């Protein structure tokens, strides 16, 4: 199985639009949307959800009002100010303690110090993940709840399930199954969870000074994990000089320069129509995307 992960130094570079276009070119790849903090690949691919699963990325404490003696020990040891003495009374006290689920960090200290074992430590449901069918093949994706954490753990889960499907040959060529991943932006834990073990990382950047800086940081990350890396400049024509510097810098670092893509309103129009640029228009931009796809797939054939 070969795995291509598309990432960027920041959000909004066109990474997801490019992944969707690649999916239309590959036709039978297994897809994974690992940008779980702001998943949007489904907006273009319109998946038909076949499986829905809860995702638990941690635990939350919950105080049983019938057992609590209102001693305040849990409030004393909590460092996140998540415990409040505002719960209903019981046969022992007029007020009991409660826990604010938003403030609770799931550390479990209150559970350890409660003298009457009145606190349960339960799995927190932080979001959901899905196995779906799209017009280009199966897709595994997720929706993380508002202000929820552990997106890195969810990314690892999404990749694991997508790899399982690819390994079963479902929706991919049995001879050479391809996993196409829409990764997370930046260089944090979700990105590390997106790229580790990949056969090729494609970094999508923009021709700006900040885009060049972000590319350098991402390139350092992929180099640390010894992952072959390619670079694509989206909207290159808004600043040809910076694009040239990015291309030269990429080659100096030993990165594969995959190509340049024009700034084209047709890409936005395609998104509004819930289509990829490949499906929407047969123009120069679509040809540039095809060229980038050819470069990275040809390079992938040379990797072990």
Give a structural overview.
The chain has 304 residues and is an alpha/beta fold. The chain folds into 2 domains: 2-56 and 127-302, Rossmann fold (3-Layer(aba) Sandwich); 58-124, Alpha-Beta Plaits, CATH 3.30.70.20. It has 11 helices and 13 strands. It has helices spanning 15-26, 42-45, 73-77, 109-113, 151-167, 189-195, 209-224, 240-252, 265-272, 277-280, 284-302; strands spanning 2-8, 30-33, 48-55, 58-63, 83-87, 96-99, 119-124, 127-134, 137-144, 178-185, 200-205, 229-234, 256-261. The chain has a 9-stranded mixed beta sheet with strand order 3-8-9-2-10-1-11-12-13, sandwiched between helices. Strands 4-7 form a two-stranded antiparallel ribbon. A hairpin with an 8-residue loop joins strand 5 (83-87) and strand 6 (96-99). The termini are close together. The model has no long low-confidence stretch (mean pLDDT 92).
């Amino acid at each position: 199985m070969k795995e291509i992960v598309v990432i960027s130094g920041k959000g909004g570079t066109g990474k997801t639009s490019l992944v969707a276009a690649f999916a239309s070119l590959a036709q039978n790849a297994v897809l994974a949307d690992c940008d779980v903090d702001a998943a949007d690949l489904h907006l273009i691919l319109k998946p038909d959800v076949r499986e829905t699963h809860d995702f638990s990325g941690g635990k939350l404490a919950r105080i049983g009002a019938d057992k609590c003696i209102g001693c305040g020990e849990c409030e004393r040891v909590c460092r996140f100010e998540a415990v409040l003495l505002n719960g209903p009374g019981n046969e022992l006290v007029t007020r009991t303690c409660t826990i604010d689920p938003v403030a609770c960090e799931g550390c479990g200290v209150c559970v350890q110090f409660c003298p009457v074992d009145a606190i349960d430590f339960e799995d927190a449901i932080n979001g959901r993940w899905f196995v779906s069918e799209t017009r280009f093949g199966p897709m595994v994706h997720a929706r993380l709840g508002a202000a929820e954490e552990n997106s890195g753990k969810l990314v690892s889960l999404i990749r694991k399930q997508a790899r399982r499907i690819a390994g079963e040959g479902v929706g991919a060529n049995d001879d050479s199954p391809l996993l196409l991943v829409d990764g997370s932006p930046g260089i944090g834990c979700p990105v590390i969870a997106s790229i580790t073990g990949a056969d090729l990382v494609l970094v999508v950047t923009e021709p700006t000074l900040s885009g060049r800086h972000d590319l350098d940081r991402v390139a350092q990350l992929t180099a640390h994990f010894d992952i072959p890396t390619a670079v694509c400049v989206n909207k290159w024509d808004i600043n040809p000089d910076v694009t040239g510097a990015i291309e030269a810098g990429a080659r100096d670092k030993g990165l594969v320069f995959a190509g340049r893509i024009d700034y084209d309103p047709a890409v936005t129009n395609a998104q509004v129509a819930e289509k990829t640029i490949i499906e929407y228009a047969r123009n120069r931009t679509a040809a540039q995307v095809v060229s980038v796809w050819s470069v990275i797939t040809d390079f992938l054939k040379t990797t072990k």
